[in-house]
Specification:
Membrane topology: Multi-pass membrane protein
Strand content: under 5%
Number of domains: 2
Enzyme class: translocase
Largest sheet: none
Subunit structure: NDH is composed of at least 16 different subunits, 5 of which are encoded in the nucleus.
Structural class: mainly alpha
Distance between the termini: 76 Å
Shape: globular
Helix content: over 70%
Catalytic activity: a plastoquinone + NADH + (n+1) H(+)(in) = a plastoquinol + NAD(+) + n H(+)(out); a plastoquinone + NADPH + (n+1) H(+)(in) = a plastoquinol + NADP(+) + n H(+)(out)
Oligomer: single chain
Number of helices: 14
GO biological process, one term: photosynthesis, light reaction
């Protein structure tokens, strides 16, 4: 049997072409993910710089000013310092739990960004259960904190992990009920559909006006989920020996702070998506309809405008969160649990029942 060499060359070239297509396909899958991670990293650095500048202004201090112009590189300098510091491990602790805990906290929050729409058709994964996926994944983060406290073989760390788990359970339920009310109003669990349902009447169509009680409960619950003042009992270093972070140092210690700021950013983005109309312009559609067509017809320019509007609304909420941290005192643990179980849970449940009744009577 004689095999033509040209046929062999054609087969080889075809196989190489197919392999190149597979490589290009993998690259095109990784590009959006890497772009999102880069944007999130820059966003966290901006939040750290803003918090230091705002807190300095509230306390009449100067704030960071030496690391880069206006101190914009201070967060990067702190991260570099933590990266090169010695990484200590407790001699009698569980090394696996001690090492895995910070990673679980960061990864579980990073996955939540995949369902957030930053603009029209600019979302990594438009899922039918987008908001519930965020709630389910964010519930994994306290497990990492509990593992960290238990693996440290330190009673203060273990109590800090237990406080984090108790706080998360207390405020996860009211937050979920608020999200369920929004999904009933929008007839969807997709984040993109929720934003589209608010788009017709500009700021008048925002869920903020249709769900004011749910909005307030969502703000309080999201601050508790992020362990921000006045709800930072799991890591109150002034009074509780830093909680689950007591035995950590170096980059693992820094991962907890990265997870905290990542969680704050994702909560702010979901406030924008669920209650503030997402990427939509605030002007009602009936007045300036041409502006609403920019996102759909102008390609990159429209997506850029959508991203800018989304981030503007997000950083407005971040400003409120940072101001709250440097204004209100810390709650006691019993006050924190009473607020979650005795007040927010019944009110959020009543809000859900009212929303359900409204939807049934409107059919």
């Amino acid at each position: 049997m004689i095999i033509d060499t040209t046929e062999v060359q054609d087969i080889n070239s075809f196989s190489r072409l197919e392999s190149l297509k597979e490589v290009y396909g993998i690259i095109w899958i990784l590009v959006p993910i890497l772009t999102l991670v880069l944007g999130i990293t820059i966003g966290v650095l901006v939040i750290v710089w803003l918090e230091r500048e705002i807190s300095a202004g509230i306390q009449q201090r100067i704030g960071p000013e030496y690391a880069g112009p206006l101190g914009v590189l201070q967060a990067l300098a702190d991260g570099t310092k933590l990266l090169f510091k010695e990484n200590l491990i407790p001699s009698r602790g569980d090394i696996r739990l001690f090492s895995i805990g910070p990673s679980i906290s960061v990864i579980s929050i990073l996955v939540s960004y995949s369902v957030i729409p930053f603009g029209y058709n600019f979302v990594l994964a438009d899922l039918n259960i987008g908001v519930f996926l965020w709630i389910a994944i964010s519930s994994i983060a306290p497990i990492g904190l509990l593992m960290s406290g238990y693996g440290s073989n330190n009673k203060y760390s273990f109590l800090g992990g237990l406080r984090a788990a108790a706080q998360s359970i207390s405020y996860e339920i009211p937050l979920t009920l608020c999200v369920l009310s929004i999904s009933l109003l929008s007839n969807s669990l997709s984040t993109v559909d929720i934003v589209d349902a608010q788009s017709k009447y500009g700021f008048l169509g925002w869920n903020l006006w249709r769900q004011p009680i749910g909005f307030i409960i969502f703000l309080i619950s999201s601050l508790a989920e992020c362990e921000r003042l006045p709800f930072d009992l799991p890591e109150a270093e002034e009074e509780l020996v830093a909680g689950y972070q007591t035995e950590y140092s170096g980059i693992k210690f820094g991962l907890f702070y990265v997870a905290s700021y990542l969680n704050l950013l994702v909560s702010s983005l979901f406030v924008t998506v669920l209650y503030l109309g997402g990427w939509n312009i605030c002007i009602p559609y009936i007045f300036v309809s041409e502006l609403f067509e920019i996102n759909k017809t102008c390609g990159v320019f429209g997506i850029t405008i959508g991203i800018f509007i989304t981030l503007a609304k997000t950083y407005l909420f971040l400003f409120l969160s940072i101001t709250t941290r440097w204004t209100l005192p810390r709650l006691r643990m019993d006050q924190l649990l009473n607020l979650g179980w005795k007040f927010l849970l019944p009110i959020s449940l009543g809000n859900l029942l009212l929303t359900t009744s409204f939807r049934l009577f409107s059919l």
